[in-house]
Amino acid sequence: MSYAYLFKYIIIGDTGVGKSCLLLQFTDKRFQPVHDLTIGVEFGARMITIDNKPIKLQIWDTAGQESFRSITRSYYRGAAGALLVYDITRRETFNHLASWLEDARQHANANMTIMLIGNKCDLAHRRAVSTEEGEQFAKEHGLIFMEASAKTAQNVEEAFINTAGTIYKKIQDGVFDVSNESFGIKVGYGGIPGPSGGRDGSASQAGGCCS
Amino acid sequence: MHETDIHDLSDDADYAAASQQGSSSINRSDTSKRSSSSDLEDAEIVYMKDNVAIHPTQSAIEGIGGRLKLLKQGSSLFMTWIPYKGQSSNARLSARDANLYTIRAVSFSGIHSIRRHTPTIGWQYVIVVLSTGLAYPPLYFYSGGVREFFATIKQHVLIVRSSENANVFLVNNFQDPLQRTLSSLELPRSLANRTPSSSFPDSPSEGNSDNKHTSEDDSSDSIQQYNKQRQKSQDPARDISIQVLEKFSLVTRFARETTSQLFRESLDAHGPNEKRRTNWETSANDVEIAPKKVPVPSDPLELDKLSKVWGQPRQHPLEHQEWSIFLDSEGRIVDPDALRMRVFYGGVEDNLRKEVWPFLLGYYSYDSTYAEREYAVSAKKSEYETIKNQWQSISVEQAKRFTKFRERNVLIEKDVVRTDRSLSFYEGDDNPDVRRMHDILLTYSFYNFDLGYCQGMSDLLSPILYIMKDESEAFWCFVYLLERLGPNFNRDQSGMHSQLFALSKLVELLDSPLHDYFKQNDCLNFFFCFRWILIQFKREFEYETTLRLWEVLWTHYPSEHLHLYVCVAILKRHRAKIMGEQMGFDTLLKFINELSGQIDLDPVLRDAEALCVYAGENGVASIPPGTPPSLSSQDASIYQQQDDEVL
């Protein structure tokens, strides 16, 4: 399927916070309570539309356990967006956010858009992290923030699409050289070609000039 | 030994003949076509040559002399080679050894090709390769007669000289598309028109052989002899079954040695940079068909052909009756190597796994008796309970101050409910087996506190608990599995990195264009194979198929690193797509992940075995010492012994 842009995402966060379930809810619009735990890195994709342009999201879902980080880190590179997920019912998953962020900053490109997601907001009765704390953390670290539920699908679309919107805006603003795939953005054939570095070599009014 | 009643074999000539082909599986499909030796009593002898020997030890001094015959019955041609009785020049080669190599009535319909060797010094010899890929040991013509041998064959069956190698003769092999091509080009006729003398160089003196040896003159005699021997032994069925397995091993080994020699010659002849090709397949290029343009560098090994020669056809799984033959009256495994080989080639029937797996994993020792195992099981059960009690007795107050315990417990709790829950064995709320899985993993994290718990362990435990059912038995099997695979879960991932490194070395050895491609595309870390190796392909196959693969890998035959060759085999099967579609780091991972459920195990195992055998010493050298799963020294010594015995 043709797309104007392809954005590469990575989903990170502690084990069991619901990374794979968020992905599945977004790509398949379903919640699977009995989902095998993720080993290594898995993959999902979906088309969305922003500003009337078809955009393909290619999403890399990583295993959360600490010991796998040396492997999963290598998938940070070339990601335009990251969903950093914690579980609002488990305090420790929130406490580990700083370490995840440090990892992301270190191994991803500097312009990567990061969305902080407090998952499992349907379990409000077991809440261990307040919404305000999440907001505060996001503000301090320059992240977009949202509470969501992979189970009820609340804010799942929004989380992925808002992230894409932010990336799209950055392209418009000329933050990225979209011809350089290391930013996690690829210009497609089916949509608006990118600026200077567009594949067919023609200039485009869609993106700003950054070269 | 499969479709035949084990307890009533003594008069079954068909069985005896089958056993002589080394592998029962070879004959399963063509039993009806193949005549048994006893049926050949009325066959016409069209060729007979004395002083044709095999060299079991590669040393001519230890050759076993015998008589080679071609027999014609109806339109079928058969070959037999019967060793002379008591003639062996070396005491180590017993009558039993000689018997093992005997070729009783192999039909030419089951022969793929015959290769002739004419060394500058020494005797001419031929190697007969069966359609199954199995090869007989080289037959050395001490008194000449090779030319006559081929000439006789040519009179009775269609035999075509390989266009690629003038010393390889393909036997009525019209399933082979290349053969069909040749046939349509009428090459066989032109070959047939050649006179024998122009086709075959003069052989050494073909003077009459002296018949000073007492030969077992014909195949039916030798079968009677064979039966007599069997009846003498205390437990004929067991004795024979083991002999068959041993023979299978020997013949297979020979096939490997001789074919690996052929390949080496072939490689040498073509030089390292030229396209390598096996010797016994015809080549389209040689009949002046324009070479195909391939978008990707071609596979230097041509795996299909390699597997045909070296990869053994899969057998049916080991079942109860056959299993009992491996045990002596007190329950010891008489020949562990034969068992391993049997399991390697066929796996184990589901309801027998519970008995066999503990041996394969090293939990039960092969020389233990029923009584010893019964005792050990109960001792191990109480040992398990003791370790389990260590965490069960941790109070809530204590747990509050024991972060590591709490973390592990939570992680395990979260993971067991995310492991194979779609399987009926583990499905449903409050499933006692999910609870058992939790308890085993947590107990293991106390038994091996340094390693603790890591994701992926539940995937490894799930099939073991599913098979063993008993909690303590499953725990100990798991312990022994992790003796091998524990390094996969090292915190620093050192065990995984060393295997991925070894894999890259093997790909470099076995498919250098693919290796170069990965290098250019920054994929040499082989992270895309991470899941395969971490949990032994558990996520790549259906559950039942995973059980089969695991027991095969656990035999550590022909290599404890066979799983790495399995990786190479799968990658090679998709090399054209990987390179053709210019897959990069990301897309390659996606592609590999999506192969899950798409991989056909048996051909892959065949390829893996062929690659492993082909790689040989170079393969061993590519895998750094200590790369998991490391063998215990005891295992290593067994392999050493096996090598000594065969070589």
Task: Describe the fold and architecture.
Chain A: Keywords: GTP-binding, Hydrolase, Lipoprotein, Membrane, Nucleotide-binding, Prenylation. Chain A: It comes from Helianthus annuus (Common sunflower). The complex is a heterodimer of chains A (211) and B (647). Chain A is of the alpha/beta class and 211 residues long. Chain A has helices at residues 19-28, 69-72, 91-95, 97-107, 131-141, 156-172; strands spanning 5-13, 41-50, 53-62, 81-87, 113-119, 144-147, 185-187. In chain A, strands 1, 2, 3, 4, 5, 6 and 7 form a seven-stranded mixed sheet that branches. In chain A, helix 5 (131-141) links the parallel strand 5 and strand 6. Chain B starts with 12 loop residues before the first helix and ends with a helix. The interface between A and B is medium-sized, with 24 and 35 residues.
Please write the string of helix (H) and strand (E) elements of chain A.
Answer: EHEEHEHHEHEHE
The rounded distance between the terminal residues' Cα atoms of chain A is 29 Å
What class do helices, strands and sheet pairing of chain A give?
alpha/beta
Mean pLDDT of chain B: 76
Percent of residues of chain B in beta strands? Answer: 5-15%
Secondary structure: elements and pairs:
The complex is a heterodimer of chains A (211) and B (647).
Chain A: E1 5-13, H1 19-28, E2 41-50, E3 53-62, H2 69-72, E4 81-87, H3 91-95, H4 97-107, E5 113-119, H5 131-141, E6 144-147, H6 156-172, E7 185-187
Parallel strand pairs in A: 1-3, 1-4, 4-5, 5-6
Antiparallel strand pairs in A: 1-7, 2-3
Chain B: H1 13-20, H2 24-28, E1 44-54, E2 64-73, E3 76-83, H3 95-101, E4 103-107, E5 111-117, E6 125-130, E7 139-141, H4 146-156, E8 159-161, E9 168-171, H5 177-184, H6 187-193, H7 196-199, H8 219-232, H9 236-270, H10 303-310, H11 320-326, H12 336-346, H13 353-360, H14 370-392, H15 396-400, H16 403-416, H17 432-447, H18 457-468, H19 471-485, H20 494-510, H21 512-520, H22 530-534, H23 543-554, H24 562-573, H25 575-580, H26 585-594, H27 601-622, H28 633-646
Antiparallel strand pairs in B: 1-2, 1-7, 2-3, 3-4, 5-6, 5-9, 6-7, 8-9
